[in-house]
Design brief:
This is ABC transporter permease. This protein is mainly α. It is built from 13 helices and no strands. It has two domains: 74 residues, no CATH class; 216 residues, MetI-like (MetI-like fold).
Length: 319
């Protein structure tokens, strides 16, 4: 199957999946207990006329199908609706908060890739005490949830030592990076351990294969064998964890942003869920699903480039 045909097929599958996900996301909010009108009234009693006016303003009294069709039509035009809690356009809320979340996720992803691959490489190649130390360290990382790491890092490096701010994002890129350093470490810790374990296991498997032994018997240096034969072949297995890594980052950023008071879309999602802000929750959830599917598509397209043994699409059986 050609690259363009495969990409077109995957894009069509993504569109169908996103359409199904949008229906689930839109409907899930209406299955939850409570009513947005009750939050708008702030617990005050209201006359039937006032309640009817609120429902009419936010189309809360329309049939479910009509509300869903109106919502999808607005999204296709780039309109995510109006926030019930903040009384402003959801698109403006996302534009104000998305940079902080993207920078946080980007910093965490750099830490995960750099340290995860490095530790996995060292553990597989050197073995001995280095491998044992890495195994113990990654076991600790895997056993530490992001919200626990956030509390520990904040208490030690922000409160006790005072090296980093306890929360917020600051002004300017330099201040944002400084404020987001501890949240990025807390967000990346678990995934560093996971990627290091995956990289180590994949490289050890390749090290035991025949073509590596043959290359070494021909006098090829260990450095070239590890780089060209072992690490490159192991990258295929490592790359398949890319979707899992990104999805975990997106989910855990809600907890980390809340712990460090980072004004990103993760914290916005938590607050909007609590206050039954339907348009905001639905927009953020749909964006996260879209990002996850985009990452999976990129991984599928890169996989044949990393590992030539992988082909795009199903193989045809020989006649």
């Amino acid at each position: 199957m050609s690259f363009l045909r495969f990409a077109a097929r995957r894009l069509a599958e993504m569109a169908a999946t996103l359409f199904g996900a949008s229906f689930v996301i839109f409907g899930a909010m209406y299955l939850a207990p409570g009513n947005p009108a009750s939050f708008l009234l702030s617990g005050r009693s209201a006359s039937p006329e006032a309640l009817k006016a609120i429902n009419a303003q936010y189309h809360l009294d329309d049939p479910f199908v009509l509300q869903y069709l109106r919502w999808t039509g607005q999204i296709l035009h780039g309109d995510f609706g109006r926030s019930i809690t903040y009384r402003t356009d959801v698109s403006r809320l996302l534009a104000d908060r998305l940079p902080s979340t993207l920078l946080l996720v980007g910093m965490a992803l750099v830490l995960v890739v750099a340290l995860g691959l490095l530790l996995g490489w060292i553990g597989a190649v050197r073995g001995g005490a280095a491998d044992s130390t890495i195994l113990v360290s990654t076991t600790f990382a895997l056993g530490t949830p992001s919200f626990v790491a956030a509390v520990l890092l904040q208490g030690l490096f922000a409160v006790k030592l005072g090296w980093f701010p306890t929360g917020g994002t600051g002004d300017g890129l330099g201040q944002m990076i400084w404020h987001l350093t501890l949240p990025a470490v807390a967000l990346a810790l678990y995934l560093i351990g996971m990627l290091a374990r995956v990289t180590r296991a994949a490289m050890l498997e390749v090290l035991g294969q025949e073509h590596v032994t043959v290359a070494r018997s021909r006098g090829v240096s260990d450095h070239k064998v590890i780089r060209r034969h072992v690490f490159r072949n192991a990258l295929g297995t490592v790359l398949t964890t890319g979707g899992l890594i990104v999805s975990t980052l997106l989910v855990c950023t809600v907890l980390v942003e809340s712990a460090f008071s980072v004004g990103g879309i993760g914290q916005l999602l938590e607050l909007s869920t609590t206050t039954k802000d339907f348009p905001t929750v639905q927009a953020i959830s749909l964006i996260m699903v879209g990002l996850f599917m985009t990452v999976n598509l990129v991984v599928d397209l890169l996989h044949p480039l990393v590992d030539p043994r992988v082909t795009l699409g199903p193989r045809r059986s020989a006649a």
